[in-house]
Amino acid sequence: MKFIETHDELREIYREPSEGAVRKELRLLEEHSKRFLSKSPFVLIGSQDDAGNADVTPRGDRPGFVVPLDDQTIAIPDRPGNNRLDTWENVVRNPSVGLIFLIPGMNETLRINGEARLTADADLRERFAVDGRPALAVLVVKIRALYMHCAKAFMRSQLWQPETWPDRSEMPTLGQIVRDQLALSVSSEELDAGLAEGYRKSLW
């Protein structure tokens, strides 16, 4: 198998981008991107360490949980998780991140690329408190580029159309998956119950 390795080889397959596709890239938040952030409950964060090992992690919260600090800076609160800290370990080594924001039912997405820093600033953590629980930390992203991404991926996948979704019973539970992958002796029912209790106690 021959792989594509140069710009010229790429452009033998793909035409040049349109003027609009190039010009849509902005450097500052404006009314539409701010409104998108205010409605979005979900973001994917792409990062990599200083050796190039990449990671993508989901972050979800109540709509508008990502807040502009100014027209070139946004803040993303962190909540309790599995404490692997894959993304945060990457960020302290390499601050470059790529973000994709989603709004349920909307086929277009907002993309932001920038430089990220993690802070445990008490005032900022408290600003993102939910039910009296402040954020564990806050990711502050200085925007390098932002733009709206077209709907084609969501149209092709029919992601928001429930009639295309597989029946949940066709997939095992997370407890079943973990039990099989780790060859555990504990039952999947016990694992699922433990997961549910963990969600109940530490969602925020």
- What does the average pLDDT come to? 97
The percentage of residues in β strands lies in 25-35%
* Unreliable stretches covering 5 or more consecutive residues: none
CATH architecture of the largest domain: Roll
Helix percent band = 25-40%
Span between termini: 48 Å
Integer tally of domains: 2
Helix-strand blueprint:
Layout: H1 7-13, H2 19-23, H3 31-39, E1 42-48, E2 54-60, E3 67-70, E4 73-78, H4 86-93, E5 96-102, E6 109-119, H5 122-127, E7 137-149, H6 152-157, H7 174-182, H8 188-202
Antiparallel strand pairs: 1-2, 1-5, 3-4, 4-7, 5-6, 6-7
Helix pairs in contact: 7-8
Structure description:
This protein has helices at residues 7-13, 19-23, 31-39, 86-93, 122-127, 152-157, 174-182, 188-202, and strands spanning 42-48, 54-60, 67-70, 73-78, 96-102, 109-119, 137-149. It is an alpha+beta fold and 204 residues long. The protein has 2 domains: 15-157, Pnp Oxidase, Chain A (Roll); 166-202, no CATH class. A 7-stranded antiparallel sheet has the order 2-1-5-6-7-4-3, covered by helices on one side. It is globular and about 55 Å long.
Features:
204 residues, alpha+beta, Pnp Oxidase, Chain A, seven-stranded antiparallel sheet, 2 domains
